[in-house]
Amino acid sequence: MTPQEFAKHLGANYPDHQFEIDPLNENCVLIPLQLVPQCFELLRDDDATQMDYFDFSTCVDHPPDRLDLVYSMYSTVYKHRIQLKVVLDRQNPCVPTVSHLWVNANWNEREMYDLFGVFFPGHKDLRRLMMPDDWEGHPLRKDYAHPNLVVRPD
Amino acid sequence: MDLVTAYTGQDVALVLIMLLMLALILGFIAGSSLILIWAERKVAARIQNRVGPMMTGPRKFAEFSMWTGGLLQTAADAIKLLVKELIIPSKTDAIPFIAAPVLIVTVCVTAYIVIPFGPAFSVSDLNIGVVHVVAISSLTVLSIVMAGWSSNSKYSLLGGLRSAAQMLSYEIPLIFALLGPILLAGGLSMQKMVLAQREYGCWFLLPSLLGFLIYYVASIAEVNRPPFDIPEAESELVAGYVSEYSGMMFAMFFLAEFANMFLVCSVAATVFLGGWLVPFMPVPDNPTPVYILLGILTFFLKTSFLVFIMMWIRWTFPRVRPDHLMNLGWKYLFPLSLLNLLICAGIAVLKDVYKLNGWGISLASLGALAMVMLLLQVVRIPRPDTFLEKA
Amino acid sequence: MLIRTWWCALTSPSDDGGALRTEEFELNMGPQHPSTHGVLRMVLKMDGERVVDCDPVVGYLHRSIEKMAENRTFTQVIPVTDRLDYCTSMTSNYVYVLAVEKLADLTPPPRAEYIRVIMTELNRIASHLLWYGTFCLEIGATTPFLYSFRDREKVLDLFESACGARLLYNYIRIGGVGQDINQKFLDRMIEFLDYWEPIIPEYEALLDENPIFYNRTVGVGTVPLEMCRSYGVSGPNVRAAGVAEDVRRDDPFAVYKDLEFEIPTEKESDVFARYRVRMRELRESAKILRQCYEKIPSGPYGLPLNYRFKVPEGETYVHIESPRGDIGCFLASSGGDKPWRCKFRTPSFVHIQLFKKLLEGVLIPDIMAICASFDIVLPETDR
Amino acid sequence: MTESVFFYLLSGLVLSSAWSVVRNENLFHAGLSLILCFVGVAGIYMNLDAPFLGAMQVLIYAGAIAVLLLFGFMLTHDLMKARHERNQHLAGILIPVLMALLLVGTILNAQWHASSGQPVNFGVASLARRYMQQDLVAFEMVALLLLASLMGAVVIARKEEGSRE
User: Fold this and answer.
1) Mean pLDDT, rounded, for C184-188
2) How confident is residue B370, by pLDDT bands cut at 50, 70 and 90?
């Protein structure tokens, strides 16, 4: 299924939301924030898509106000892969968890909480994964400043 | 030597001679351990397609061939360990911590008393020879448990627990495997064992081959050598009960392990392979010096052959899981050793009633073994299909 | 008074209902443990010998490669990706370079494609040999380690002659490869394959027929297929569960389309099956290398690019087959000469999450056998 | 003459280790001194020309039973905080005194028939022959007792195994 068919399929299931292809990445569909757990559940369980293999989920930080959250899933049955992007507000990014759908998402979300500060309500044990527990700040954010972080001269 | 075997006579002279003999044994053990450790590293190197220690030792020898290089390597290691500082961690309780290596070496030395190196050539031929060795070597469990508990760290505790379980459960098959030859020889003393084998005309290996195999496997487990070295399995328990020891104490454990290995192999050689019986030479009644030397030589050849096999096994087999180890010990070795007792009893009856000579006995024992193989086929372990269909 | 004390001593039921209750104790298989492939720390709750609960803790080797990538130009990031997984740095280079080429839609010359495939397959052989040696050490057999490293040396010599480095190559560049490989390299490669292929049965002979190894691995650490799916297991570990899934076959990149090789699979998905799959994969890689030897065209080995070229704005996700599983790179570029965001999806990150559920009720020696059978590597997990 | 010297040495060893078994704070040390006591007793057997009995004592008591005791110590949690019942002083004094009286009484009025001088041949063979002929019944009874205790141990272990799963 090509991304366009994905968008049509999702549009059919959720008529009052519109889904379009992300201009930056032709294999990615932009989905609204409030649909996150149901739409993933639909993609996983619906026998037209059967996305049973969760690749990864990560954030792309656009400093002034936008924080994109990109999920990537693959179906071992139909052999097609899709990325889904959710746009979050940068001040207090908050997205419901999908770790109950794929166990693999658990650590990915913990890493995003640790490195980007994205909060996942519903996640069972949300604590820092990479950094020591008493670390403050979120290193992978663009505006992260730390005494021993040396920015290479251009 | 006759004065020693008399065992009665003036007490003071007796005690002096006993001390002299013990000093002799200690020197022998230290020397043999040095050579054994060097030999183990050479055999391991040969199996692993490398050369092993070459740098220490006489330069001329090293060029000659791989097997003659690095002779003084173990001496160098010993000196290094001597110089190392003895660290006793703060929270350990000192008495058992220090007592453990001391105990393991003394146990090993006392067990050497009864080993008959040559015709009348053993320190003191106790008439409870075999049982003496087994009883004394059962104390090594104690020293490992002490080391495990007193070094006060989880890993050594686990090592101590495992070794206690392993050693206890392998003493039983060890003793029962020895019962076969004891039954054939009609006595416990080691010299009597060797003389009985001469009288039977064939080594006790043939009538109780099963006993020999069980004894050999159980003795590898008793000495904690791979594939049964779970107490100090590097990959899991760091170094098991030895992980807190350093310097000379660690060397003592190391020395004791090799001395125990040599002890166990020499008992096997005496009991099963006819200690100092030169294979095809009739034994003269009054032992001439030439025959004594030849006897000692054959004894060392047989023991070193068994030691070589132990080293060979060490570097080819992976480690056994503790519960497989227990299950092997209790479910397979123990019943088989009882079966071996049965076979030996049958052969003893054949010997007394029908006066069979050496060849007759070996034929009878081969027949009995065929029967055992048949029995084992019936009890074959089922294997899942992946293993059968070779990819 | 005497009788009373006696009586209560006899009749007082012991507090835990009579059954001997051994205390649970916590064992810290810490970052410095000799057999945890790098710095994985497992907090184990033990009951005697049996594991009650295991909580893997990662992050001890976190160099934040993704933050470093954002500070470097596109070509300067390549040596950083070497350190992502130092056992197979060719594949991490390759996945990053593929992502950049897809964004900047560059197509490398065919000769470069073949050189890349040769290098990744050689790297797969080296990584599997390293795995075989350490796996046998976990089980307790020390000799196979020496055999596998003796042969791995020969592969590393090949790498050294091609790109000057033995472990971290910085060889696959954007638009092609670092240096060209001459005919002498190819002949030495074939010479190595001729020497090495008859030796693989020698490795297996050491372990396959061995009842101790067979007892330690068959039926241990079995991962059912739906567990593989929900955890996102990939590579040899999922092929051991009976599914012929391989990125080189399902989503072919470079020249894998016109090379033929099968995907070895097993059925039981236990430690023994994973071992069998990897041993058969060694043979497949050798077969691929021989085909590349015949089919490699001549011509340029790279595109002339100035070292600070700009990549048009966009995001993409690309994944290839590394010896440990399916490694992916999500690259976002904002039109500058530095990547805006570069995320690596690594297989070991996924496989370590399995241990939490897999190690319950397992004996200590099995922990090592199971962890080693998954071929996890910590730099890849912590990034 | 050396026999009596060894005898006093060994009995001193046995008494002191028995005393330290009772008085020792650290339970593990108590276990160790118990083993020392067993080895001392084995030494006394050997001194009295019964080497087989001495070896058996070392093998069974010091080698197996005491180690299992230590095994138990190592498995139980927080060993050092073993509870000390202080309130049994009366029983603590009364019972040993009674035992002492009993022992001394039997020793005094038992008729010790003087040993007949030449060393009795107490080798293993004669021991085995005694088992098989005169006291076969006692031998079989002991075997039954051991079998019963073995079955008991298995039942207890099986019950405990059941409770954990």
Assistant:
1) 92
2) confident
Q: C207 contacts in B (CB within 8 Å)? A: 318
Inter-chain CB proximity D164 and C47 less than 8 Å: yes
Question: What would the mean pLDDT of C52-78 be, rounded to a whole number?
Answer: 87
The alpha carbon of residue C164 is apart from the nearest alpha carbon of chain B, in Å, by 27
Whether B259 and B122 have beta carbons less than 8 Å apart is answered as: no
Q: How confident is the model at residue D120 (pLDDT cuts 50, 70, 90)?
A: low
Q: Which residue has the tokens 């472990």?
A: C167
Contacts of C140 in chain B (CB under 8 A): 226-227, 229, 233, 235, 317-319
Where residue B389 falls among pLDDT bands split at 50, 70, 90?
very low
What are the tokens at C160?
């050294």
Q: Over the stretch D58-68, which tens digit does the pLDDT of each residue have?
A: 888 988 888 88
How many angstroms away from the CA of C185 is the closest CA of chain B? 27
Chain D residues near residue B99 by CB distance under 8 angstroms: 32
pLDDT for D86 equals 66
Phi then psi for residue B283, to 5 deg, are -90, 120
**B residues 358-377 lying closer than 8 A (beta carbon) to D:** none
Assess C239–A contact: CB distance below 8 Å, yes or no.
Answer: no
On chain C, the residues whose CB falls within 8 A of the CB of B156 are none
Q: Would an 8 Å CB–CB cutoff place D145 in contact with chain B?
A: no
- Class of C41-382 in CATH: mainly alpha
| Fold annotation for A3-116 | Beta Polymerase; domain 2 (3.30.460)
B10-13, Cβ contacts within 8 angstroms, sequence gap of 24 or more: B11/D1, B11/D2
Lowest pLDDT segment from A129-133, C189-193, C284-288, D11-15: A129-133
Quickly state the pLDDT bin for B346 (edges 50, 70, 90).
confident
Predicted complex: ipTM over 0.85:
no
Using only the alpha carbons of chain A, give its radius of gyration.
Answer: 16
The reported pTM is 0.84
Contact residues, chain B, for D67 at CB < 8 Å: 141-142, 145, 164, 168
Neighbouring-strand partners of residue A68 = A60, A87
Peptide bond into B227 cis (omega under 30): yes
Closest residue in D to B186 (Cα) is: D125
Residues ≥6 apart with Cβ < 8 Å to C207: B318, C136, C141, C144, C213, C275
Q: List chain B domain ranges.
A: 1-80, 84-383
Cross-chain Cβ contact C2/D159 below 8 Å: no
Task: List the Cα angle B204/B206/B209 in 5-degree steps.
Answer: 95
Domain range list for chain C = 41-382
